[in-house]
Amino acid sequence: MTKVFLKKKIQNRVLLGHPWVFGNEVGQIEGEVNAGDTVDVFLHNGSFLGRGYINPQSQILVRLLTRDRKEEINEQFFLNRLQKAWDYRKKIGYVENCRLVFGEADELPALVIDKFNDYLVIQTLALGIDRWKPAIVDALNKIFSPKGIYERNDVPVRELEGLPQQKGFLSAPFDTNIILNENGLKFHVDIENGQKTGYFLDQQDNRREIKNIVKGADVLEAFCYTGTFSCHAGHYDAKSVLGLDISEHAVATARRNAELNNLQDICKFQAVNAFDQLKQWTKEEKKFDVVILDPPAFTKSRENIQKAITGYKEINLRGMKLLKPGGFLVTASCTNLVNPSMFLETIDMAAKDARKKLRQVTFQTQAQDHPILWNIENTTYLKFLVVEVQ
Ligand code: SAH
């Protein structure tokens, strides 16, 4: 097996358990480098560090799969890892729908698997893990006997790995429009054409958090996607709910979701640009009791963090202005590039500009089925804040 030796001086990151080895951390390589192959990684002094997959085309040269020298990377390895990920979800009580595999946090770098009741949706985001797709699918069939498995690899990040964007069935074809249950509601999920894997499981716990504050309230949700927060608001006895999203497809699904839960009289949706709409309504001094904001990442790269912050600040400022005194702002950010303290600072700046005082109700992160590893920074990515605005 090809041997990768790290430089003498390397950052503690890898030693402390982070699975990524960057190209500039590597001193020398013994043996052939074939993209996607399994390699052994050693420290400068020759002691074994771990085993993983290599891709010279990627800035992350090796992603480690194990630090146990005796553990081989084969079909059995993937069966064991997936069983372990499933056992963990069962233990913490995420059974029907869950993020079954959250990449690095499940010692399966660049692999994402969402379980929507009897269906599984997979993303293999690096070449080395993509190679093992047949083994992963076999293991999933063994553990779950699912009704269907679908691949949502239509994501640009695969191109950094030299992989094509693609999507399709990894099982016999099935109807990709499914319905899932969450917190006593039902939601349509379009596995084939929905965003990401079709549904945002990471907010499943946070959606329950709005229960008390929406009672009897006029609620505005911007960036509502398929209306999941909106339907929760309706279900929790909001007086009226208005959801906005730029995507016609998302808004059409949101309307169907409201109907599915018999909330169509309370929950209304509009396909508009939320930036423009919030701006106009601020001018018109329109007011709501609760404003919910769950925008997209705004940036995918470190260079553009400032752009993301400007976006977050603008919508939160407008959100605050649209609230009646004592109203509640429910606001989220889903990019790991903006860390929790940066996010809170941004909300604070918006409050100062809007001349509002905030009282924090709760500050949370993603649902527990997306585990956070303290030594892997980017496993903390979702910020979810509820504040009372005076
Ligand atoms: N809260 C949702 C997820 C929201 S994802 C859930 O829990 O399921 C972010 C959404 O913002 C996407 O649906 C995207 O279509 C929408 N979006 C992006 N830019 C927008 C804009 N300028 N105006 C309105 N919606 C926008």
Keyword list:
Rossmann fold, Transcription Regulator spoIIAA, 20 strands, alpha/beta, 6-stranded mixed beta sheet, Archaeosine Trna-guanine Transglycosylase, Chain: A, domain 4, binds S-adenosyl-L-homocysteine, 26% helix, 9 helices
Structure, described:
With 390 residues, the chain is an alpha/beta fold. The chain folds into 3 domains: 3-66, PUA domain (Archaeosine Trna-guanine Transglycosylase, Chain: A, domain 4); 75-177, Transcription Regulator spoIIAA, CATH 3.30.750.80; 200-389, Rossmann fold, CATH 3.40.50. The protein is 26% helix and 30% strand. The protein is built from 9 helices and 20 strands. The strands form 4 sheets. The protein has a 7-stranded mixed sheet, sandwiched between helices. Strand 14, helix 5 and strand 15 form a beta-alpha-beta unit. Helix 7 packs parallel to helix 8 (305-321) and helix 8 (305-321) crosses helix 9. The longest helix has 18 residues, at 75-92. The chain is globular, with a radius of gyration of 22 Å. The protein starts with a strand and ends with a strand. The relative contact order is 0.09. S-adenosyl-L-homocysteine (SAH) binds at residues 195, 200, 203, 223, 225-226, 228-229, 244-247, 250, 273-275, 294-296. Residues 2-87 form the PUA domain. It comes from Chitinophaga barathri. One of its GO terms (molecular function) is methyltransferase activity. This is Class I SAM-dependent rRNA methyltransferase. Belongs to the methyltransferase superfamily. RlmI family.
Low confidence ranges: none
Strand arrangement in the largest pleated sheet: 16-15-14-17-18-20-19
Mean pLDDT: 97
Bound molecules: S-adenosyl-L-homocysteine
Global structural class:
alpha/beta
Largest sheet: 7 strands, mixed
- So what's the overall shape? globular
Helix content: 25-40%
How much of the residues is beta strand, in percent? 25-35%
- Count up the helices: 9
Radius of gyration (CA) equals 22 Å
